[in-house]
What we know:
Elements: H1 9-22, H2 27-34, H3 38-45, H4 53-62
Helix pairs in contact: 2-3, 2-4
Amino acid sequence: MNENRITNADDLGTCIRARRVELRLTQVELADVARVTPRLVGELEHGKSTAHLEGVIRVLAALGLDIYLHTR
């Protein structure tokens, strides 16, 4: 299991893009699977911090990525 610490929108975008590329998906293909717009995928990958949480969760699920919260 690969774990990445996400501290900001740029970190999340980097992880999303890396996983999408690993799966050999275009932004349009990922958007279709996740039921979001290609624009949202692009914005996430570029670290836009105002994306709707539901869209983020859909994209992560489509990529097979989970979110876990840990107490520091």
